[in-house]
Known about the structure:
- The chain is mostly helical.
- The protein has eight helices and no strands.
- Helix 3 packs across helix 8 (162-176).
- The longest helix has 26 residues, at 7-32.
Amino acid sequence: xxxxxxxxxxxxxxxxxxxxxxxxxxxxxxxxxxxxxxxxxxxxxxxxxxxxxxxxxxxxxxxxxxxxxxxxxxxxxxxxxxxxxxxxxxxxxxxxxxxxxxxxxxxxxxxxxxxxxxxxxxxxxxxxxxxxxxxxxxxxxxxxxxxxxxxxxxxxxxxxxxxxxxxxxxxxxxxxxxxx
Length: 180
């Protein structure tokens, strides 16, 4: 077959290719020049206090759980280290840093949230909350809520699958943080 492509079609294809190339270049440049944060996800700057509130509440929740079971702090650190995320918080726990985003990004990765678009911290949190049918926090009622149950079994499950525990802790924390 010897069909020729029209000029209009050729121009359309060229414009689409240029648009895709420009978009990818801008995302990479934003990350290189610190206009976009995040480790696994492209996180755009956000002027709201959401990340500060999330970081503070996550730290409080983790401290509550660690009071019930001191080894849980090690489980949370293991989950971050396995996924190559930074230490949980900078010296100022309310600073909006990549470390404050780490648990949220880890949960997003565990729940297979697509990483092909940039997110604000609030949009990533809303996407995480909408990406599961059954709340991951329901697997750890004794650890997260202090309910009667098999604390030993939940500690063993958290140690075996630390990403699942961090996802549950993030889910429980996001339930307390207003998204809108």
